[in-house]
Write a structure and sequence with these properties.
two-stranded antiparallel ribbon; 4 strands; about 230 residues; mainly alpha; about 10% strand
């Protein structure tokens, strides 16, 4: 904020709205507006720290509380923390469902059966995405052998196998790995093409593209044969 204050004092920045706009850009960038008291006029800017607010937040710095209805006999403190951290996967799947892979953007329904149907489709797509990610993990950068953590609050670390896979961009079997989204896009290149004989235009037939090694491996991991016919 010092450059803004200096410009106001030097008369190079004037106008209450313009000063407030410039100051807000700085304060909002670091989410610190609540810790300052400002006095803004057309030719004046005074910024003072709100010491009470700063002390109150400092007292809680690095502390958070998790509450659950699950009893201690079912889940201990470490388990509660781990479950809370696992919500990151749920949030990822919801982003995938809404705007990335499935693109089920919010739809405003009023009739009960339509609301239930929309919710069902959303949850079904999330369920499928979860199992796809888990089944296709060997072909993605997913860490399939994450090391156990003694301290659930500590940051997760990648396993040696995951670091090697990320570096070589290949798994232990020497197969190319991709991001989950990129793997789906690659799978999308397995297409059905309508062919027409050049010498006899009236003759047409469907031809399925030859699967790549990665595409064949996908179907092996899913436990289903490569389809001979694509809808």
């Amino acid at each position: 904020m010092a450059p803004i204050i200096a410009r106001v004092q030097a008369g190079r920045l004037k106008g209450k709205e313009e000063i407030a706009f410039r100051l807000a850009k700085v304060l909002n960038k670091f989410k610190m507006e609540k810790h300052f008291v400002t006095d803004i006029a057309d030719d004046r800017l005074v910024v003072v720290r709100d010491e009470d607010s700063i002390k109150a937040e400092a007292a809680l710095d690095g502390i958070y509380v998790l509450r659950t209805t699950i009893g201690r006999d079912e889940l201990d403190a470490a388990g509660v923390i781990s479950a809370y951290k696992d919500l990151a996967g749920v949030e990822r799947d919801f982003r995938s469902m809404k705007v990335i892979d499935v693109e089920l953007r919010p739809v405003h329904h009023r009739l009960e059966d339509r609301v239930r149907s929309h919710a069902f489709i959303c949850m079904l797509s999330t369920y499928l995405s979860f199992h796809l990610r888990r089944s296709l993990a060997p072909l993605t950068f997913t860490d399939t052998e994450p090391p156990a953590r003694d301290d659930p609050v500590a940051s997760a670390s990648a396993s040696k196998a995951a670091r090697k896979k990320a570096s070589a961009k290949k798994n232990a079997e020497g197969q190319e790995v991709r991001g989950f989204r990129e793997l789906l896009e690659h799978l999308g290149t397995l297409t059905r093409n309508r062919m027409r004989v050049a010498s006899s235009p009236e003759i047409e037939f469907d031809l399925v593209a030859t699967p790549t090694p990665t595409q064949r491996r996908v179907f092996e991991l899913l436990g289903v044969p490569v389809p001979k016919h694509l809808v």
